[in-house]
Design a protein that fits this description.
Helices cover 75% and strands 0% of the residues. By secondary structure, it is mainly alpha-helical. The N and C termini lie far apart (59 Å).
Length: 191
């Protein structure tokens, strides 16, 4: 009979922080809330993270990697350049459909960036993520369209996607993302 090893303190802290940061916001979530939710002593948090800022940075990195995994799964199913562009929208839809204990609130990265000072490393990380998403779209479009068309259309699709994600978060449903995907499909059909 194999025993199951409980998650490490670091894993529990990250999980608790991710849930609380997404549900309540970074500023509203104190260290005591995170350690209580993780079931660890405050010292365990500081043994694993230098500061709350360090924990936030790791959280943002984990959110980024989570989306990349969702996208990679969707991209693996795509057979055409257009399908690979739509895989980006599908990964956002997958993200919106995840089971959030306190409800869907939109993009956790954008929510976090809205709370951080303009020059904060976390905002830089979120910007890099959004730029990478747009680059993925542009790169996929470049497979079957001119560089100019790929750049212009990629930027437009990125704006549609991000606007839809913002509205979906405000409304608490993925409906706007479904509409954005349909708009993207129509735009791709005209190229």
């Amino acid at each position: 009979m194999a025993s199951t090893r409980p998650p490490s303190a670091r894993t529990r802290i990250l999980s608790a922080a991710a849930e609380r940061f997404y549900a309540d916001g970074i500023a509203a979530t104190g260290i005591d809330t995170i350690t209580a939710a993780a079931g660890v002593a405050k010292m365990s948090l500081y043994n694993n993270f230098e500061s709350k800022s360090d924990l936030v940075a790791v959280y943002l990195g984990e959110r980024h990697e989570e989306w990349l995994r969702l996208h990679e799964c969707r991209r693996a199913e795509a057979t055409t350049s257009d399908d690979r562009v739509l895989a980006v929208f599908d990964a956002y839809l997958d993200h919106a459909r995840m089971a959030y204990p306190h409800g869907f609130r939109g993009c956790g990265l954008l929510n976090a960036a809205a709370e951080l000072p303009a020059d904060a490393p976390g905002r830089v990380a979120v910007r890099a993520h959004k730029e990478q998403v747009e680059k993925i779209i542009v790169d996929e479009l470049s497979d079957s369209h001119s560089v100019s068309t790929a750049r212009t259309t990629g930027e437009q699709l990125s704006f549609i996607l991000e606007g839809a994600m913002s509205r979906a978060g405000l409304e608490g449903t993925p409906d706007r993302l479904l509409a954005a995907r349909a708009i993207a499909e129509n735009i791709l059909a005209t190229l």
